[in-house]
Write a structure and sequence with these properties.
Number of helices: 6
Helix content: under 10%
Largest sheet: 22 strands, antiparallel, barrel
Radius of gyration: 24 Å
Strand content: over 45%
Structural class: mainly beta
Distance between the termini: 54 Å
Length: 690
């Protein structure tokens, strides 16, 4: 299997270098023309998003939320289903998903969820140390999502192996004055949302109230969530706009725990005995306020300034056994500043940016009695700050050719203060991390709607405070930052099929060599927990491809819309002293997802969906293999002028499969590390505007 994937990756690399027949059709007049910018009350327009994608010499995907109301979208796994290069899996909680981008976070501890920077409207919601451990984004409160994988997140200031995802909020300009969304179905799911939007002169605003209840398809998996999302914009002048954002989330979630293989074979949907007895929970209260102001200084220059502040309270009983119990009760404060200045000068389009973030986490780790907090074990007082600055020039140096070159500077600090209340011992790793990360890329415009690109970039990711807390080192010495280089080539574009058909694609092939990747190993003194450590050398390589089309049938009243997303992964140790060239665990060798939807002009649509996922390992020794699986589904509905309905069937064959794994050094046959994916399920919903 390993050899065949490497051969396929090499073949795709060769194909990406073959010239195209229609290169002569490219428009030489496109260069030297500044991009048109549309200012809509501080919001980022679709034109801005697509323009930035076209100026990036690497894998960037745009997700449009209009599709979310024609299928059941409850979490990031549903939202990012067709984005290549990501491995996103749900199964443990209603909101949260484990996700890995280009092999980030492959130890699959699923706690801090590091490796990819999350932003909302261009402002970070990931903490300053890089963790996402108690933050999830509601897909239905997103208008667009921009997924910039790996080093392609330079313009977001991201210093992470997996890149960045920017979730862009809908404004009153995107919604009808009143909108009601209700969906529900199997496993006790019920979710309702009511939005009110108003545009009045140079002011606009939208408020959304949401409630969600879910029993779950496993034992001890119930969820209750109430949320409020709001934003308002003020067009102060033709060239100046500002927007204020407000979010409040109150989420209570039971955790079902992981099962051994024998338990999974007996009943994959039972809750783990320890999770039920210990009443494992993941309860988060959070509120966030942010603002973003954009000033179009001239037709060729603009400045945006963003500020954000978020507070989170986490109550998290997570380990309960005869040897050890752990309940995390902490408050986290995140503050951020974002600056962007863009200037177009002749054939140069220069973007400069700065992100500053500060995070503090205070509270403690407690023992607990079946979810009830008891004795304080460790007093937690952690801080982190991060400064990321970058400059990039997109230079149209010749007709059809752009040279993209730039550099990112990272200066960040981590300080962990964990006081053992029994012994008085202070665990105090304290470290600063700094790096200069250059990037060089090239884009060739083969046709008006077709680009070919390549880039060579440096990767850099410091550890999170949670990794420093769980450092395998016996003293206060800190982990090293991950670093490496990546080369990437690919293409994206669209083209007509006949007189009334269209197809579009994304293709990227990358190869990265990393040093000091941070992975989690077993803690022999606390079964069920893990410790972070640096490993010497690893390789992260892969192919990311997405193909979609809209094909006219007959005279055009009928259309067929196929969509296919393929990810090939080649993640491995590189001549490691202990693990040799073993495959890294958690991520499958390949993931293939697709659908074929028939649409009629009167609004009806229906079609099958499918998933094909390869096997994967659950340990570094490659001694424990988790089977791959295939899933079939069906979805359909009707889209009217101001309303639409959908129905969706998932896992029609009721296949029992593993969605999530917990990684071990060498997993024993009876290790409790498996969590089931969703069984056969039915969902339906509607959206109505007034």
């Amino acid at each position: 299997m390993l050899t065949s994937r490497r051969t396929l990756l090499a073949s795709c690399l060769a194909l990406c270098l073959i010239p195209q027949a229609y290169a002569d059709d490219a428009n030489p007049d496109n260069h030297n023309q500044p991009l048109e910018r549309i200012l809509v009350q501080g919001a980022q327009s679709k034109l801005d998003i697509e323009s930035e994608q076209a100026l990036t010499p690497g894998g960037v995907s745009i997700v449009d939320s209009e599709d979310f109301y024609q299928r059941n979208v409850a979490n990031l796994a549903d939202m990012l289903r067709f984005v290549p290069g990501l491995w996103v899996a749900s199964g443990s909680t209603g909101d949260s998903s484990f996700f890995s981008s280009r092999g980030s976070n492959l130890d699959a501890t699923s706690y801090d969820g590091n490796g990819i920077k999350l932003l909302q409207d261009g402002l970070p919601i990931t903490a300053a140390d890089g963790n996402n451990h108690n933050r999830s984004v509601d897909p239905l409160s997103t208008r667009y999502a921009v997924v910039a994988r790996g080093a392609n997140a330079l313009t977001y200031g991201a210093s992470t192996l997996g890149g960045a995802i920017d979730f862009i909020s809908p404004t009153a300009h995107d919604l009808e004055p009143l909108q009601l969304v209700i969906n529900g179905g199997s496993h006790g799911l019920w979710q309702g949302r009511l939005s009110a939007a108003k545009v009045s002169g140079n002011l606009d605003g939208v408020v959304t109230l949401e409630s969600r209840k879910w029993d779950g398809f496993r034992g001890h998996q119930q969820q209750n969530r109430q949320s409020l999302y709001a934003n308002g914009g003020w067009q102060a002048s033709d060239n100046l706009a500002t927007r204020l954002y407000l979010t409040y989330i109150d989420n209570d979630q039971e955790l079902p725990g992981a099962l051994s293989r024998a338990e999974f074979d007996q009943d994959p949907y039972q809750g783990q005995a320890g999770a039920e007895l210990g009443h494992y929970q993941y309860n988060v209260r959070s509120w966030r306020v942010a603002s973003k102001t954009q000033w179009d200084i001239s037709p060729v220059s603009s400045l945006s300034v963003g500020l954000s502040h978020e507070q989170q309270a986490l109550y998290h009983p997570i380990v309960y056994n005869p040897f050890f119990s752990l309940l995390i009760d902490t408050d986290q404060h995140n503050s951020g500043l974002s600056l962007r200045y863009n200037h177009q000068w002749h054939a140069h389009d220069v973007l400069m940016g700065l992100n500053y973030g500060q995070t503090s986490v205070k509270g403690g780790n407690y023992r607990h009695d079946k979810g009830r907090r008891t004795e304080l074990m460790t007093r937690v007082d952690n801080d982190a700050d991060s400064l990321e600055a970058f400059v990039v020039d997109r230079w149209q140096f010749a007709p059809n050719w752009k040279l993209i070159y730039g550099v990112q500077g990272v200066l960040t600090s981590r300080e962990v203060r964990n006081l053992n209340v029994d012994t008085g011992a202070l665990y105090h790793p304290d470290a600063d991390y700094q790096s200069v990360n250059p990037r060089l890329g090239l884009i060739y415009q083969w046709h008006d709607n077709i680009e070919v690109f390549t880039n060579l970039s440096r990767l850099y990711e410091p550890p999170t405070n949670y990794e420093l807390e769980d450092d395998a080192s016996p003293d206060d010495s800190a982990l090293k930052a991950m670093q490496g280089e990546v080369i990437e080539i690919g293409s994206r574009g669209s083209n007509n099929l006949g007189q009334s058909g269209l197809w579009h694609w994304e293709l990227a092939l990358y190869y990265a060599r990393l040093q000091d990747e941070i992975l989690s190993v077993d803690d022999p003194d606390a079964p069920g927990t893990s410790l972070a450590t640096n490993v010497d050398n690893t390789i992260h390589a892969g192919l990311e491809a997405m193909l979609a089309a809209s094909l006219a049938l007959g005279k055009g009243a009928h259309r067929l819309e196929p969509k296919l997303s393929l990810t090939l992964n080649e993640f491995s140790f590189d001549k490691d002293s202990h693990y040799g060239n073993n495959t890294l665990p958690s991520a499958p060798g390949y993931v293939l997802r697709g659908e074929v939807i028939y649409r009629h002009d009167n609004g009806w649509f229906i079609g099958p969906t499918f998933d094909k996922v390869d096997a994967r390992y659950a340990d570094f020794n490659n001694s424990y293999e988790v089977d791959g699986y295939s899933l079939l589904g069906l979805r359909g509905g009707y889209s009217g002028k101001s309303w639409e309905i959908f129905a969706e069937l998932r896992n029609l064959t009721d296949r029992a499969y593993v969605s999530l794994v917990s990684v071990r050094n060498q997993a024993s046959a009876d290790a409790a590390i498996l969590q089931a994916g969703e069984p056969r399920s039915f969902y339906a919903g509607f959206r109505m505007g007034f």
